[in-house]
UniProtKB/TrEMBL annotation, chain A:
Family (UniProt): Belongs to the binding-protein-dependent transport system permease family.
UniProt keyword annotation of Transmembrane present: yes
Name of this chain's protein: Peptide/nickel transport system permease protein
Boundaries of every ABC transmembrane type-1 domain copy: 98-303
Keywords: Cell membrane, Membrane, Transmembrane, Transmembrane helix, Transport
Organism listed in the record: Mesorhizobium tianshanense
From TrEMBL, chain B:
Protein name: Peptide/nickel transport system ATP-binding protein
Keywords: ATP-binding, Nucleotide-binding, Transport
InterPro entries for the chain: AAA+_ATPase, ABC_transp_ATP-bind, ABC_transporter-like_ATP-bd, ABC_transporter-like_CS, Oligopep_ABC_C, P-loop_NTPase
Swiss-Prot/TrEMBL GO biological process terms: peptide transport; transmembrane transport
GO terms under cellular component: plasma membrane
Xref: SUPFAM superfamilies: P-loop containing nucleoside triphosphate hydrolases
Membrane topology type: Peripheral membrane protein
GO molecular function list: ATP binding; ATP hydrolysis activity
PROSITE patterns: ABC_TRANSPORTER_1, ABC_TRANSPORTER_2
Amino acid sequence: MSFIVKLVAQRMALGILLLFAVSVLIFAGTQILPGDIAQAILGQSATPESLANLREQLGLNDPAYIRYFHWLGGVLTGDLGTAMSSGQDIATSIKGRLWNTLFLAFWAAVVAVPLAIILGLIAVRYRNGWVDKLISGLALASTSFPEFFIGYVLVYFFAVKWQIFPGISTVYDGMPFGERIQAIALPATALTLVVLAHMMRMTRAAILNVMQSAYVETAELKGLSAFNVIRKHAFPNAIAPIINVVMLNLAYLIVGVVVVEVIFVYPGMGQYLVDHVTKRDVPVVQAVGLIFAAVYISLNIIADIAAIVANPRLRHPK
Amino acid sequence: MADTLLDVRDLKIEATVYPPGEHPRKITIVDGVSLTLEKGRVLGLIGESGAGKSTIGLSSMAFGRGGVRITGGRVILNGRDILKAGRNGIRKLRGREVCYVAQSAAAAFNPAQRLMDQVVEAALKHGVANRAEAEKRAKALFRKLSLPDPDNIGKRYPHQVSGGQLQRVMTAMALCSEPDLIVFDEPTTALDVTTQIDVLAAIKDAIRDTGVAALYITHDLAVVAQVADDIVVLRHGKMVEKGTTYEIIKEPKQAYTQALVSVHHIGHEEKQPTTKPVLSVKNVTAGYGHGIVKVLKNVSVDIHPGQTLAVVGESGSGKSTLARAITGLLPPLQGEVIFEGRKLSNRLSERTKDDLRQLQMIYQMADVAMNPRQTVGTIIGRPLEFYFGMRGKQRDARVAELLDKIEMGKGFIDRYPAELSGGQKQRVCIARSLAAKPKLIVCDEVTSALDPLVAHGILELLLELQKEENVAYLFITHDLATVKSIADSIAVMYRGEVVRYGARTKVLTPPFDDYTDLLLSSVPEMEIGWLEKAIASARWRVRETNAVGWTRTRNSRFRPH
């Protein structure tokens, strides 16, 4: 068991190291962007004196590494800086939006992950038959359409024609849970359709790979039904690659929702990022980038650890 | 016949193959085989690979591997044709009336489940017993099969028990649902010879005590002679001969059976050691994980020019690690490798191109040792280019010459490995190693994956080439019959140490040390009743050997005190 603890600790340490490396990259990336923040704030008509004052005030004259540590120190103490465009505290504005994004991603995942795995299992059970082809075909089609297309189609039918769900996903603080769910129904559906195929195809491929093994033959020769062979003997041994692809898609649900949030005017991180990219609000872009990186890295660490724990050889050493 | 359990009539089985670049075509795997098996009897199915023995065995469970289809004939089990049973009928019979014991138990157990769950699964599924009864029965079977700690071994995962133990657990799994018939598909082939004898005895006892009938599939006539009442000899999907075990072993009628039965002796004169060995291994200690696990302990052997040193031992004894240390793939922790009087660099990367040329290697798995997308000509020509800079016509001429040497001919130059038989693939690997004109070839279990008659051909070829090229062989094997026929000197390895070493006759002549004795006495002989005698003498030996520091239990191997 201590072996696993060590492995897990190693992965976590690596993840933290990676996050620091990413923070350097994000900081460096925003530094080499052309243009000057002071200029951007004051506009073309600024006088050289006011520019110099502002630079001094923002600490822009310090060397880059000092500014980096300054920024990093802030981040570590929960101070993400101030948005230049609005003058608001970034951490405060992000909090509510991050929560909204996680809420949407969570419900999309709750639908998409089990659905993808069950569809994958069914596809394996009827492999190469019409059921398999139908599932794969529909899943691939849903992935091939861009998110905005799916989004607008959903809006057209469910919001405009049948008026079941709202076309604009407005949420506010203190909104009742039921209404909230209703509000995010359409964007969650769009996200589900986008990530479904990848997870389902991977589940199918991973299980099919295991289906070649001798122990699956043993199970068949015990007279188990095809579904029990897959569920009891194939699936548990295909779990590691499935976890990996699921985590990758969860990360996409959180990080990649930009387009969907914009379509449904959903007050999440994606929309916040897009708004501030257009305004060239560097501190906000840095903060959001760092949060996205943290989400991505931690989900991948979880996937790694889950894959390790799923391996009976590591869980039960000799 | 009232007590007929299995009656296979005129069975025809086909498979669709997809040769590269050609249209898929049907091939016949089993062609009109008929056999019967009475309750409580053991029928041996024997033949080389491709004889259709596994396919026939699985047909008694109405199962076809891959694209295999049963196209004709009848399989009557307990009085009804199971080929007409329908999907549900077949599912009710598998794991209930007929159970299967696979060749590699290590692969045939689900790595993610505890053994007990897998052992009782079929019995629970078919409602033979409830969980508590089934576990009780499983534990009784573990005890009967001499598994250690029978009450708790079921709690372990497959990777936590040894190969020989897994094979016995698999037998318990087959017996747990009290079937009428068990199909044993080469159950001891993947085991070491010293483990095989224990498993074989356990299986034989279990069959006798439970009264189950069995189809025992193997390529090893000596093994099947120990367990079967009757034997069917198969070749290319057709039945060659059938009879009682005594008739097949003692009075075979068909030429093919006679060839299988007659032990092939290769007349190889033992050569005397020369004064100057071509390669000396001096006090080599090697291991993995920065020396935490020492796999070789202070090993010293000499290989003389143009002679064969056979290194023999069971899996885990360090044979292949010795080869890796010699070739530089695993730098030794201590000791040195002397080639023609000078020390070779421990590391592969520090050896000169000529050092590399002088030491060549042939592997057990010929198919994975060749690039499947290269032709035979390219494969053999590569060392010619690399070591001698040969190109064009000169190279092609030498490739053709080498192909002649391995008795294949230049017609094979443009063929791909996938088009060759197992024996031909190994011959190409031999030619590739010869192309470098080496002084020493390390042969790592080169005949282990081949059928006996094909392996025999390869050994004869190797000896012939040794005479022509004066090349020395380091011949790694677990097969003592091979050792007896080709070695000039022998090193017996056990747990990383050389326990007996010297000229062939000296090593194979008593008095033996205990391990060599066990090794030699564990090789099945083609003689009815050999198994009982061997086990009895092993039991007798326990008392004798305790005094000298070795002990033998039925469950484990020799253990130093």
